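Hi P.,

Sorry for the delay on this. The queue was packed all week, but I finally got your sequence through. Input first:
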Amino acid sequence: MAHPANRESENHTLLESVTTSAHDALRAAFDPVNGGFTQPPKSPQIDALDFLLSRYSGSGDREALHMACHTLRRMALSGINDHAGGGFFVRAHDAWWMRPAFEKRTADNARLAMLYVDAWHATGDSLFARIARQTLAWALKEARTAEGAFFTAIGTEDSEEAARYYTWTPEEAERHLEDDEYALVRLRFGLDDKPNLGRRWHLHVYASLSELAKTLHRPKPELEDLLASARDKLWAARRRRPTPSRDERVDLLDNALMVRALARAGRLLETPELLDAAERTLAAITEHLHDGAQQQADNKTAGVLLGAVLELLQARWRDDLLTMARKLASALQRSSTETKSPGAMLALHELGVLLGEAGFVDAASITAEPRLREAAEAKRTPDLAWLTSCEQLVRPMRLALLQGPAAQVEDWRRQAERYFNPARRVYVLAEHAPLPRPMAEEHSVADGGTRAWVCDADRCQGSLETLDALLQALRS
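Then the structure:
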């Protein structure tokens, strides 16, 4: 039998081989002009984008960051993004992402919103933050039930009804806008050019705001405000049209993804109303968690829901959320290991580190799966979502848990989360909340000040009582 240290080294070597092959395959398929990784029809390839951002965070691979961010930028400016109402369509029929299939899916938009938040966190580019907010605003306005949950989709891919709903003629747009708003929209979205969808125009960015600032002799910030006003008016006008059909099923996995997206965006973009929405959505689907219903959902759904609860805990620590996380973890642990997704195991691992409870998951055994070895030997790329979770599972995880007066502890949180690092989790407890077990066992505490604990998979350090000490512990 191989020594555990040797097995771990072998697993890391296998993982690096497969992730490098996946990166090379994406590089070969990458469209350096328009972004994306497929020939038309082009879909967002969410798993590929997530893999590339994860690879950048783990290894500093700037080529991976470029491919992800260039694709996200081109999508944000194209017709696959709804420029009047927000939200992304499922795919585009052309290489330029201009002519979409007019269906929006809640799960896709939740995952894309998280990717845009992560891209903003990695680069500081305000475009990504704005698109994340607009995408979630669409979901909250148009895809939410009265109880606060989200239904599955709006529209069908090639419905004439949906195409009519989303497209314009120049005359229609001008009728609803002030003269200066229309002058901007006309040039920004090519309404002065030939129609790009039959005899109608679907909004697709043709000119940057920097270019238009010169053309219209107005400062860029003024144009940004003008564009926001025009978007609101076009959306309001469009809502008076016959609306596309909706798939009003409430799917637990879709809603778990949306809770996670709202919580991540609310926390990192410091938008409390998004956190409120995340809490309301979780409350709306809580009925699915009672009476042993955890077993009724598959392990992937339960794992995503556990990840969503942990994401919300990072933003707003609540004892009932921790209790819910424990119940989900117990359900996952009772199910067979063979059916667990690496994503579910990653969430179990995170909760285990937080609670100081060993044995939630053996990270090394995940990457020793025959599937990984077969992929390495065959030089083929397995499912990218699976591969991303495996990569994150073996990456050293650092958890920081903070407690203290609200103003100071919030500053510590911002500093701890300043740089993009998905392997780092930061939890903020209420000032007098009880501590999880590994921190509660630490008796050297400061009275009235802010303190922190940093934990990895094996142990938690003693309490840290200065910000510099916290940041040093996170870097070590």
